[in-house]
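From the methods appendix. Each design record in this collection lists the tokenized structure first, followed by the designed amino acid sequence. Records were kept in a plain field format so they could be parsed without special tools. The example shown here is representative of the layout used throughout.

RECORD:
FOLD TOKENS (478 positions):
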């Protein structure tokens, strides 16, 4: 038997002012594809030949440019055509890719692959918990499951379970489809962390089903991605049958799960204090240090520009009061270029700010240049860190600012250490993210999620949606 292996993933923010283009994707072909995805041993053990297609993943940003999407999809489809005897397909696809003039990238890919393979091929996707799924997605893909953690720490577990289920289907000749239920509700991911209720209990139920119910191969709760403005944007529950005989049973379990989740819709909330910007600054100076502050409205992993100056301006206005503050990092390629023209220790006036919207209005600041570094980070924890962007560090009194040449969220210890920074030596450290990521929790003692304005603004009922299907909670009172 032969299985095509690959990854084509993006989380698209429709409120971001730009498109995601080809050069923004981390791209591999050949053996490198297999090396980046932790599933090869599963297929090897089953005696299944693997055919690598592509690995193309980009950090969240605006919708994917149509030309870019067709370029990568074309490579996947070419691999399929060159291997007409493919028995199965395993892919990592995020679930919230939105493509210019096309719509759902995952759905388009699944349909185009199915057109080539017909019903003879079993298709399995490992996915992100923040996917927005088309109504007919479950008629194109045989197996799909999303992460059970947010913040995400179980990517490898999800990929391996969907790969193992694909092997099971292939060995028995199964061509069955999941039971999927769309729910008229949507939340920002920060209100659906799996570390607190109600998601903690929902995930515990899914894990129990997968571990102890032989009729259920996979079970998922997709929170959805609130910043994609599309009719498919909503939460979804999915139950994948283990055998054809289990389909009716799994349909009942999917109905049961959908009803239980929807009944809890008013219980979704932030996992810890979420404060407006000014109150964030005031509270961060009162709490035990080090205090980790996340800039929720400008979260590059949710597709923002990463250039908001809202919290920087608040800290500058408040004065540090003797507190040491680190802000990592602010995206501004022009300011970055200005910095690297200097030598460490130079004092100069820097204009900082992308000047593309209200949260990136420039500010002129007198800074001391500290140096330039390559920011290292990993995509999956199973892969080694590589260069993600470059950064310059400048100081204004007790405030250190990291300026990057690409949007990037500092959420991993290696992000800071590669810049020769230790957040634990500061009273407050600010990062552009939503959740308090596990590694950030290890670095901090106190935590604040700052409800800042920006392209990942958390008060989604105030967003100017045009295409989302109504009624939907919390935009509507249902």
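DESIGN:
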């Amino acid at each position: 038997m032969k299985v095509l292996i690959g990854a084509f993933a993006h989380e698209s923010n429709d409120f971001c002012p730009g498109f995601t283009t080809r050069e923004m994707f981390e791209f591999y072909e050949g053996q490198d594809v297999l090396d980046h995805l932790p599933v090869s041993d599963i297929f090897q053990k089953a005696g299944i030949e693997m055919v690598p297609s592509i690995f193309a993943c980009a950090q969240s940003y605006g919708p994917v440019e149509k030309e870019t999407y067709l370029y990568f999809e074309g490579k996947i489809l070419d691999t399929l055509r060159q291997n007409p005897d493919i028995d199965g397909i395993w892919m990592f696809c995020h679930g919230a890719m939105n493509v210019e003039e096309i719509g759902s990238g995952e759905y388009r890919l699944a349909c185009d692959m199915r057109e080539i393979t017909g019903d003879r091929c079993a298709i399995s996707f490992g996915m992100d918990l923040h996917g927005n799924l088309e109504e007919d997605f479950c008629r194109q893909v045989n197996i799909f499951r999303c992460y059970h953690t947010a913040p995400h720490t179980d990517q490898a577990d999800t990929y391996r379970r969907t790969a193992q289920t694909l092997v099971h289907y292939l060995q028995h000749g199964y061509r069955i489809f999941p039971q999927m239920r769309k729910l008229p509700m949507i939340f920002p991911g920060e209100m659906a962390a799996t570390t607190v209720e109600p998601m903690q209990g929902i995930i515990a139920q899914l894990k129990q089903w997968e571990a102890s119910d032989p009729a259920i191969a996979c079970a998922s709760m997709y929170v959805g991605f609130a910043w994609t403005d599309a009719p498919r944007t909503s939460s979804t529950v999915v139950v994948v049958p283990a055998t054809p005989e289990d389909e009716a049973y799994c349909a009942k379990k999917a109905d049961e799960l959908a009803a239980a989740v929807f009944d809890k819709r008013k219980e979704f909330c932030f996992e810890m204090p979420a404060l407006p910007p000014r109150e964030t600054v005031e509270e961060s100076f009162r709490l035990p240090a080090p205090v980790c502050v996340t800039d929720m409205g400008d979260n590059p992993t949710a597709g923002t520009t990463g250039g908001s100056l809202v919290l920087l301006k608040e800290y500058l206005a408040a004065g540090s009061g003797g507190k040491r503050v680190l802000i990592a990092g602010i995206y501004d390629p022009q300011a970055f270029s200005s910095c690297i023209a200097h030598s460490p220790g130079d004092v100069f006036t820097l204009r900082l700010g992308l000047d593309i919207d209200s949260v990136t209005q420039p500010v002129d600041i007198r800074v001391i240049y500290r140096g330039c570094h390559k920011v290292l980070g990993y995509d999956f924890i199973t892969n080694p860190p590589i260069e993600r962007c470059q950064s310059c560090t400048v100081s204004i009194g007790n405030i250190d600012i990291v300026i990057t040449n690409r949007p990037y969220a500092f959420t991993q210890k290696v992000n800071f250490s590669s810049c020769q920074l230790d957040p634990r030596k500061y009273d407050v450290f600010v990062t552009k993210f939503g959740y308090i990521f596990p590694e950030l929790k290890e670095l901090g003692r106190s935590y604040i999620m700052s409800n800042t304005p920006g392209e990942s603004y958390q008060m989604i009922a105030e967003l100017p949606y045009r295409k989302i299907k109504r009624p939907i909670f919390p935009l509507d009172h249902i």
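APPENDIX NOTE: The CA atoms of residues 188 and 459 lie 8 Å apart.
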